[in-house]
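2.7 Reproducibility. Because tokenized structures are sensitive to small changes in the input, we list the exact sequence used for NERD domain-containing protein, including any N-terminal residues retained from the expression construct. No trimming or masking was applied before prediction.
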Amino acid sequence: MSHFAVEFGLDDVTLEVSDGDTTQVDHVVISPAGIFVVETKHYKGWIYGKESDQFWTQKIFKRSYKFQNPFRQNYKHVKAIQSLLPSIPQEAFYSIVVMVGECEWRSKNTPKLLFTSGWKAADYIYEQSKESSFIDINSVYESLESARLEKGLKTNFKHVKNLKAKHRA
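Resulting structure tokens (single pass, no recycling of outputs):
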């Protein structure tokens, strides 16, 4: 995923969080300065919301649609990864949301770690990675690689089934 030599990236990481429940992480960038958990969303139109809101709004012409705040969704991802890496301090984890597609952020205050392109997010990660170095990249990579469920249709099906069951309740 990453174009920087000092980092490793994992894409499409599905982890079991409890009793068969799963969470699917879009991207994890591991650098000496931290672990960047990236949620990617592809939307059109105008996007409104606050970082603390449960739902954000997408507006396309005169129609509005509500969707789960991606930072809230990514919170579960960060917590799942933190539980696998208890020796790494919480402040070393970064929850990043990247909005791609033909969308425009229209709320007054833009969340600090919301980016409207992958390149802007990559630049932010690179800048953070120059600050300090205290994470054993190889160890973190190996921990995540061994904990992730096997990539493929079976894992994706199980994750979608879990999501449908959870949102029906």
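The mean pLDDT is 87.
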